[in-house]
Structure to design on (709 residues):
């Protein structure tokens, strides 16, 4: 298939791997921020092809994984009100909160519907004018513009029963928080390709400038990732940190101005709670005052009860790249994709699920 | 409270656990415990408690049942009626049986358009003729509106297993070769593309078809066919995992050898699905002794339902109970059973 096979070519992969092996002389640590990168790396068996000098760490780039339990509990409690229709992207369904999950709430009678587009959620609101319809807004800068568009569309069409629970998060502040903690001692970062398509590669200039860490924006096919690693190895070995963009077919320095504008119109930055990291200032998006009538937090009062974290679960450490799934006492023993304890085991982009599904358990 | 989740019906891990933990302890028949697509029971004067005519040897009967709840009822390439006939015929064929008789039970929702039912039943007749089976028993129930979604069908089937045939998911042996009869995922993606809320257009047709003639040809070509499975719900990945567990072997596949049609690949890339987990209704995977593999493959390729048949991998001893995939770029990874329902990615 054109545009895909050319990025999975075995000979090109061998050439890039040879280049990586030749250039990599010292021990380095590279974090892929994005969960989609993590899964691609595991799915294509890339880690085991790299020389032992390169240690790959998985970062916090799985929106579901970083959603705080308190926020999840709020969404689940909201869904339990059967007058409401809760719409969500599919991955959220099985994530366990303190005591339940949306999937369990659905089995117990909650009207939870999976949508593939935010505009489908608006359509459900249009089709059910007597019932409030809430969309669970989870995701990074890739998702938030589409949620902004859904709100603008609802306003334009006088749909007054559509609400958004905005749990959107911003990726650069989280990357800063990880580097500020000093825990993971990174030499280079593979920046999120989809997010950077929206925010632009310029948004990552702080990495070399303030932290002396190189960053490469890469696509998600095996050759994209190998080229990204090769570029990082060259930069790190050369001692001159920089932001490189090897995903030019999607990413521009200035990003997608239209998408950014939609975000600016509807949202404003706010402090946000990240699982495993804690509260990070200006790392979330909430609806600004003009769009408050669409804000589910403003419209609904629910009591989610006290937040409980699952005992022993290391998802927080895994998200920060300071632990790997096999370090966790629950991993594979009680926590599996069909009986997940933490979110990293549920999400299609979670690090624990990637380890579980694609490695033999080491 | 523990409740049934949709994922319990996905054919993946939760379905497997439901059968293992809830049904099997109550239904301890050793024939059921083999977890093959159909049960093979010995019909002798002793087991059926009757006198058989003089001179008749023991006869093995394959028996299976399946229920069909597909939505929408009609999709490109098939409908619930064709599925109900082919699914049960194929389950019988997967133990090497020659399918003979089917029963059909209908659960109808009050208000169902009679023309819809007529079309479904006509399609069942056509499919039964194609497979060479007779529908010899039936039942109809009507439930009040909302008690079912339009139309559900259950079919049960009986077939005869020729002498000398022993095909079971427990029979894979190290050194065997894995053959797939054609491209992956056509049925799942064809149905998915017609679901509400997921409107992408594709000309892809479901592969739903009776495979008993293909299997009969394969068995004529060689008696060294150890395992047959039709990778329906849960896809090829789940079918191979079941085989590797039941046979206590490892199965390795080459990603570059897996046939997947362009439309399925495109839909999977778009929705974040893996063709290894998408349902097929007219494909089979065969595990065959190495010496017989070439002959079986050629036979399959001459059959209309096996034209795209190809070798995809082999059976090894270690790691026991696991399925491995060698990726295009040269890495190796585990292929697990389907977990939960297939859900799309969110970013």
């Amino acid at each position: 298939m054109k545009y895909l096979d050319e990025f999975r070519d075995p000979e090109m992969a061998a050439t890039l791997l040879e280049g990586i092996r030749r250039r990599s002389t010292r021990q380095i640590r590279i974090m892929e921020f994005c969960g989609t990168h993590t899964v691609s790396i595991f799915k294509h068996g890339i880690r085991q092809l790299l020389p032992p000098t390169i240690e790959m760490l998985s970062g916090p780039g799985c929106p579901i994984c970083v959603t705080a339990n308190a926020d999840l509990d709020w969404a689940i409690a909201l869904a339990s009100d059967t007058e409401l229709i809760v719409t969500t992207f599919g991955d959220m369904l099985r994530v366990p909160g303190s005591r339940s999950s949306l999937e369990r709430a659905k089995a117990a009678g909650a009207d939870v519907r999976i949508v593939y587009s935010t505009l489908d959620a608006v359509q459900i609101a249009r089709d059910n004018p007597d019932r409030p319809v809430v969309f669970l807004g989870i995701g990074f800068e890739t998702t938030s513009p589409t949620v902004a568009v859904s709100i603008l569309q609802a306003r334009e069409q006088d749909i007054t029963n559509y609400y958004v629970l905005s749990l959107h998060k911003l990726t650069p502040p989280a990357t800063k928080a990880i580097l500020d903690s000093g825990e993971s001692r990174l030499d280079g970062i593979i920046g999120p390709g989809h997010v950077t398509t929206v925010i632009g590669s310029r948004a990552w200039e702080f990495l070399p400038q303030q932290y002396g860490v190189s960053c490469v924006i890469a696509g998600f096919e095996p050759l994209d990732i190998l080229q990204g690693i090769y570029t990082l190895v060259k930069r790190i070995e050369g001692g001159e940190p920089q932001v490189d963009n090897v995903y030019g077919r999607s990413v521009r320095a200035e990003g997608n101005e239209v998408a950014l504008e939609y975000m600016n119109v509807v949202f404003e930055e706010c402090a946000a709670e990240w699982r495993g990291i804690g509260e990070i200032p200006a790392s979330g998006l909430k609806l600004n005052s003009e769009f408050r009538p669409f804000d589910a937090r403003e419209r609904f009062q629910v009591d989610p009860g006290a937040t409980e974290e699952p005992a022993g679960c290391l998802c927080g450490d895994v998200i920060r790249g300071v632990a790997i799934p096999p370090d966790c006492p629950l991993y594979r023993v009680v926590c599996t994709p069909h009986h997940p304890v933490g979110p990293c085991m549920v999400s299609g982009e979670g690090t624990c699920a990637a380890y579980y599904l694609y490695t033999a358990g080491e | 409270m523990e409740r049934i989740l949709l994922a319990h019906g996905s054919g993946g891990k939760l379905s497997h656990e439901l059968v293992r933990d809830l049904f099997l302890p109550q239904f301890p028949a050793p024939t059921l415990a083999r977890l093959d697509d159909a049960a093979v029971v010995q019909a002798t004067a002793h087991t059926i408690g009757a006198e058989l005519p003089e001179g008749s040897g023991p006869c093995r009967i394959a028996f299976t049942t399946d229920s069909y709840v597909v939505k929408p009822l009609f999709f490109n390439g098939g409908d619930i009626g064709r599925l109900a006939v082919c699914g049960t015929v194929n389950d019988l064929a997967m133990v090497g049986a020659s399918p003979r008789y089917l029963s059909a039970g209908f659960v109808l929702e009050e208000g169902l358009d009679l023309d819809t039912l007529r079309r479904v039943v006509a399609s069942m007749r056509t499919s039964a003729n194609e497979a060479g089976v007779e529908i010899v028993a039936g039942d109809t129930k009507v439930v009040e509106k909302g008690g079912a979604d339009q139309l559900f069908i259950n079919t049960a089937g009986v077939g005869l297993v020729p002498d000398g045939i022993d095909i079971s998911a427990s029979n894979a042996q190290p050194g065997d070769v894995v053959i797939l009869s054609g491209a992956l995922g056509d049925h799942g993606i064809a149905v998915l593309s017609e679901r509400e809320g997921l409107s992408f257009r594709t000309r892809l047709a479901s592969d739903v078809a009776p495979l008993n003639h293909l299997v009969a040809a394969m068995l004529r070509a060689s008696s060294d066919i150890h395992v047959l499975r039709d990778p329906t719900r849960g896809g090829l990945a789940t079918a191979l995992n079941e085989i590797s567990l039941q046979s206590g072997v490892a199965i390795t596949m080459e990603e570059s050898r897996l046939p997947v049609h362009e439309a399925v690949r495109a839909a999977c890339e778009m929705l974040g699905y893996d063709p290894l987990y998408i349902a097929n209704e007219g494909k089979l995977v065969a595990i065959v002794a190495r010496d017989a593999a070439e002959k079986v493959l050629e036979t399959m390729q001459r059959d209309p339902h096996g034209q795209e048949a190809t070798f995809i991998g082999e059976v090894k001893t270690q790691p026991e109970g696991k399925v491995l995939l060698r990726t295009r770029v040269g890495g190796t990874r585990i292929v697990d059973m389907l977990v939960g329902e297939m859900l799309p990615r969110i970013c």
